[in-house]
Each structure stands twice: as structure tokens, then as C-alpha cells.
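Q: I have two molecules that I believe assemble together. Could you output C-alpha cells for the complex as a whole instead of separate predictions?
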Amino acid sequence: MKILILFYGVFGVEYTLFEMEGERELARGIIEGIGTKTAINTYKYPDGETEHTVKEVSNPVSAIKWILHTLTSKTVIKNVEEIDAIGHRVIHGGTKYSRATIINNEVLNDVVDFSDLAPEHNPFNAQGIKASSQVFPSTPQVAVFDTAFYSTLKPEVYLYGLPYQFYTQYGIRKYGFHGIGHLCAAVEVSKLIHRSLKRMRIISLHIGRGSSITAIDKGEAVDTSMGFSPTGGLLMKTRCGDIDPLIVIYLAAKENLSLIGVENILNKNSGILGLAGTTSLKELAEKAEKGEKRAVCALNAFVYRIQKYFGGYYVSMGGVDAFVLTSRDDDSVPLIRSKIIKKLEFLGLKLDEKKNEKCCDKTMEISTRNSKVKIFFVPRNEELCIARETKEVVK
Amino acid sequence: MRILVLNCGSSSAKYQLFDYEEVAAKGSVERIGESVSLFTHYSETFQTKKSPIDAPDHTKAIDKILEALNAKEKKIDAVGHRVVHGGEKFSSSVLIDSEVMKRVQDCIPLAPLHNPSNIKGIEACSALLPGVPQVAVFDTAFHQTLPDYAYIYGIPYSYYKKYRVRRYGFHGTSHYYVSNRAARLLNRPIEELKIVTCHLGNGCSIAAVKYGKSVDTSMGFTPLEGLLMGTRSGDFDPAVVLFLMEKENLDTVGANSVFNKRSGLLGISQTANDMREILRESKEGNELATLAFEVFTYRLKKYIASYSGVMGGVDAVVFTGGIGENAKEVRESSLSELEFMGVELDRRKNDELSAGEHIISKEDSNVAVLVIPTNEELVIAKETERICIS
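A: Yes, here they are, computed for all two components at once.
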């Protein structure tokens, strides 16, 4: 069974093709610059080599067609019929979707409706679904939601201290994001150590373009750092994370900015970039090692926020069995992991520095033998988890 | 030494007169600037409650207070002022001179509602009590020991440089007082203790006090951030501000008022901003009141745990303020799942609390739990005395 995973976003579209038998990745790539004359298709061969192709891509349909063409021309597949299902990563499923679902008109309309809650994502997710349905008219399409994993949050966790009618009227509450990624990493660890998720309390840290931390008790999410939007919580590469909400109003007045102007700054010019002038965690670590003052401050602030959340979630679950860190290669920095875990030592976490240095192209334990809380690194692969869920749904 | 402690708000002046650390008189003038102001005064010789007076400004109000204190005959030796915002300029109390006044004025943009009234009080005293030393004690000063990674926000660094946008923290005098009293009660030097102090009153804040120094606190750039409060929201996703302003067609003044005056316990319960009423409503089956209570205690619990974590452990948790001192349900619920961290509340001591300072954890609890009524005025008086004598 072959499943194609699509993530259609503001940046373009990421595609990954899996053979579900043996869970092998057959192809991976990304098309950026859709709607321009110079869209770039970056195709990644299984050995890590990349190949760039440039051509005009005027609309979403031609982008999806290009993906299909790429897959057939590389002879990964012979024809359309070989693809058994398509899984779409959808960021916001509101409170309605607590699991992956086959896409029909109602689901598509909901994805569009939730644009209000995720204006940066859902409109694009919907475009991708529509285009894909045109290019693959007889292939089942499945939506896998980033928010679904958090349907288990309790009201005292997801409610803000705002007037209650804003919750009932506009749906203002904590939703949480990266749900697929957090669950995926937890499942990987559970497989590695042959222990059921039902018997584990996990704190999972996802580091990427955005970063978040989630408490998972018996396989269910109990709390998470991102909230109504992906802006809050941890310090991120370009997003501010938690701030005093009144700063938003203060800055708008002081800098004479519109609401959108402030939102742009909080999402695109803040976080590590705003403090230290880089979005690369590797560069941040290097600068901090050299003693550059603002890099030191930014790195410390990044680590400190994680430490604060960890303590809170530790207690939310009455203890922790495993700490799971997940990121892609670019964001996997041993020094940063080491700094984070040093701050958690008194809670029973001990890092095996050698394993940490070598880490990791596969899921592995990186704690010492006597560490009371086990520490794991999981390379990010949400696409595979989306593929698994897609397979479940079409079955 | 006779020390007058003054806390001036926009339309009020509260005061206490200390005579060698004993309160000799106290009271307030309310509705300053309105057509009729109200004067309340308690002392051994003279008592009045809410009697109408004429106080068009702070100077007139303070003049009335001095008259009631018989300041002409029994000289006042010094005045201590509560000043809300000392910015990054003041990390301790200070004798007021023209240079200090200028710097307090510089902090007005950070506390536009508070510092101007504090300044009015200082100016009135300079006019009415010429030559009497005055001391400023800042709400923010105790938190000036926060490390940079705890006070910096993840916004462009230029905003910190240009506008001094950072975490300041408030209720500093209270956190300082109760942490020091806790050390005294536990009979251990504060330099050895890791203490989490919970100030739960109209405004609520929590602080991590490590070896006598504040290392983190929940209120931030303004007193809105952090815990859930009576009518203030505390923490929420910053993107909500913009979303709501657009949906509700609010300007900045309107948004400010929603988050500060219509949120918190009141906002969720839609009934009451007072924890006593929330608890009563909750017992009578009001589900939103129960929800408000649960959001309040869950957040408090997370902060207690989080601050214990950042200090690498905790020796004592202290409750103070109206809710902290009186709501046993809040104390019990916020500590309920901390047993595994070594917190063992003595249920009976918690339930049957009399006024005053108490240790309410079990004798063998690894973490002590204390209830300590705060006394910011006493700290201001002592600070004033210390500075005037040195």
C-alpha cells in the first residue's frame, strides 16, 4: 500500500511517499514559490542527495500535478493508480475533530471555516486538498489534524482567564499544535522500549520552526505550551512565545503599528531571531559558546522556558517516566540538549553525554543507566505518522 | 521614631503611623478630587469612619491626615512612600531628593496609572512637612535580582533597549516580607532557603525566592500577567489580544479594560470577583464558579511546581493576601498533587486556621507550608527608619 502525504502551507507544499509495507519512505520533496514563474522543486533522494528543478507554477493544481509528474518520471511509481491514499496535514480541526477523518465536502468546508482560528495555515491546507482532489479524483483523501491530539485537555487546562462568552462565542481557548509530532515521537519511544503508552507519563519537546512542549499521560495529552495560536509558549525561532499580553497593546501604541503589524513582529521578527539575530540553533549555540552576550541571553532564555514548563508538567502528571526530544537534523544540537537536561537534573534526569554527542539518525535513549527519568531522542518524522493514520482511516 | 507610611492612589491616600514599629494610628481618605471626600481614621484618641471632608487634591487630603495625627505637637520624623514602579533604576529603597524625584518621573510611562499619584503624595508631603526626610519604597525593587533570561521577553531586543519592555514583577515588598518571616518561623537563615511565595489578594502574584533573592515572578511588564486574579486574566496567548480587538471592535482602552476589569474569576464565573463568593456559588452547584476555581488553582499549582523546579527544589511554600490567608480550599487544592514532591499539608491545621502566622504542613513534611499575613506598611516603615538612621 502506497500513501502520499501532502502538507500544503503558506510556504508551498511538502510531499512524501511511503510504502506502508515495512514503512519505507520512497520519495520526499518540497515545492516552493507556487504562483510564480520560478517555483523550485527540491527532490530529496533516499541517500540524502538533493536535486532542484525550476519552472513556472501558476496555481495549486499545477503544483500537485508536478508532484505526480516527479514521482512517475523518477519511476518511483508507474502511474496514478499506484497511490492508494493521500494524507493531508491540516493544522486546525477546531474542537470538532478529535481524530483523522476521510475528506468529504463537509470536512473540506470545516477546514475552510477554521481559517478564522488559523489564518496562516487552514486556507492553504484547504487549497491543497482541493487541488489534490482534482489531480487524484478517485483516490481517497484523509485529513490528519494537528490539534486533534489535544481533544483530551480538561477545561481547567484549556480555558483562559477571559470572559467566558469569548470561549462560547469565538472559541477562544487553548488548542495546542504539533499534536501529530508529539504523539508520533511518543509512539516511537513506546515501540523502542516495548512499553505501552498506557503505562507511561511522558514530557515531549518538539523543536523546529515552532517549538512546543506537551505532557502526555497514559497516551493522552494533558497540557501543552502552545495555545489559541502557535504564537504562545516556548521561545521559538521567530515567534515570541509567552509574553505579558499587554505588551501587544503597548507596542502598537509606541511604534504606531496596526494590529497586523504587531502580529507580524510577534510571529516573524521575535523569538531567538529578535534577541540574537539568527534563526539557526547551531549558530546560536556557537555564538553563545564564544560568549556573545545576546546569544547567551537568548539561549539561556530558550532553555529556561523549557525548564519552567517541565516543572509544571512534571507535577501535572505526578511525575515523569520519559522525556522525549524530537527535531530534524538541522535543529539537533547536542550542546542545547545538554544545557536543557542539566537544568532538570534535580528531577532525576541524567544525560549520557557521549550518546548525546553522537545522536542521532534514529530513535535512541540518551540518558545514563541510573537516570530516574529516561531521556530519548526521536528524529522528526510526522509524515510517517500521518501515513499510519491515513492507512487506519482508509482501512 | 514616628514614621508615617503613605500609599497614594489616583483618588485615595491610605496611611499608617508607626511609633517604634507599633501602629499608633491608621486610616484613609477616599474620593480625593470629588465634591465630597471620605475620611476614615483610627487611633486611641480619635476615631471616625467615612466622614465627609473637603479634599480637592492630595495635598488637602494629607493635610487633613496630619491634622488628625496631631503632627504639629507630636512631630513626624520621617515619611515612607509606597511607589509602584521603580523600573530598572531602583533596586532598593531610597531617600528622596530632587534627583530621585526625576527618576521616579522617568518611570511614569511604565506605570501611567500609579506613579503620578505616588509623586503627588511625595510632593504634598514636601510642602506640608518641610525638612522631614522622605523615603521611597518600590513595589518592583525586590524583583530587580531576576536574571536576564527570566526577565527578557522573546520580542525584538530593540524594544527592551528603547522602551525598557521586560518583566518587572510587582508586590515585591510583600514577597520580601513573607519570605523573611517564613525563614524566621522556620528558624533557619533565609540564605539557605528556597521559598515559593504566593501573594493572593485582589491582584495575585507568585515569586521564587532563592536564598533571599527573587529569581522569578509571575507578574511581568504589567500586573496583568501570571496567575488568574479577581478581575484580571493573567496569562493568555498574545495572539488572542489582536483576535479579540478585531472581533469585538475594541480599541486599546477597551481591550485593556476587558483584560483588567472583566476577566479573571469574574470573567469565567460571570458572577463574582471575590473568592469567597466563588466558593459559595460553587458549593451551591454553580458550574462556572467551580470552573473559575479550578482554573485558578490549576494555574497556581503549575506555577508553584515550575518555580520549585527553577530553584532546583523548594523548602517552603508561603501563602499570603486575602485569598492566601483565608481560602483553605485554594491552599488545599493548589497543593493537592504535590505530595510526591514532599509537600504534606496538615489538613486539620489548614482547616482550623486562626489569624496570625502559622505552619500548616505536617511535622515531617519535607516542604514546609506557611500562612503569613502580609504587612507591606511595616516593611515600608522599617525601610524608612533604616535609611534615615544610616
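A: One point stands out. The mean pLDDT of chain A is 96.
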